[in-house]
Amino acid sequence: MYFLLIVPADYGLFPDRDTSERLAGIPGLYNCSETTIGDRFSASFDYQGDSTIVRLSEDHQRISVAGSGPASTRLAVLVAQALASLSLRLFDLDYSFDIPLDTGTSEQALRDQLEAIPQ
């Protein structure tokens, strides 16, 4: 399974309660759950016939978004908007890219950047 990882730009921790509440407020999320095994928060998201799952790690070090399709890129942009007060970075499990992510990042720009990465 392919994952997009979102971390604070300073590689610190996400704020404790605030992050879960902001993620839960993202429009379109469903099956929201707090404190599952290994996760502080998780939820599902559908977009353009694609589905993904977002998770905030129990240690508050990362947010993971499953997959790399339209739902994943849309959700990464929505996470950046929900956490507008934080500078974020986006990469994959292999660290094959490292993309700054902020409220100015558009869904299309992010998709273009991801598609330009050699597989």
Could you explain how this protein is built, in words?
- With 119 residues, the chain is α+β, with helices and mostly antiparallel strands.
- The chain has one domain: TATA-Binding Protein (2-Layer Sandwich), CATH 3.30.310.
- 26% of the residues lie in helices and 36% in strands.
- The chain contains 3 helices and 7 strands; from the N terminus they run E-H-E-E-E-E-H-E-E-H.
- A 7-stranded antiparallel beta sheet has the order 2-3-4-5-1-6-7, covered by helices on one side.
- Helix 2 crosses helix 3 (107-115).
- It is globular, with a radius of gyration of 13 Å.
- The relative contact order is 0.21.
- The mean pLDDT is 91.
Notable features of this structure?
119 residues; seven-stranded antiparallel beta sheet; TATA-Binding Protein; 36% strand
What's the short story on this structure?
Helices cover 26% and strands 36% of the residues. By secondary structure, the chain is of the alpha+beta class.
Q: What class, by secondary structure content?
A: alpha+beta
CATH topology: TATA-Binding Protein
Low-pLDDT stretches are none
Q: What pattern of helices and strands is seen along the backbone? A: EHEEEEHEEH
CATH class descriptor: Alpha Beta
Distance between the termini: 14 Å
Beta fraction: 35-45%
Number of helices, where a helix is a run of at least 4 consecutive DSSP H or I residues: 3
Roughly how much helix do the residues carry, as a percent range? 25-40%
CATH architecture: 2-Layer Sandwich
* Secondary structure tally: strands: 7
Overall residue-averaged pLDDT value? 91
Tally of structural domains: 1
Largest sheet: 7 strands, antiparallel
Biggest β-sheet: strands ordered side by side in the sheet? 2-3-4-5-1-6-7
The best one-word shape is globular
The value of Rg in angstroms is 13 Å
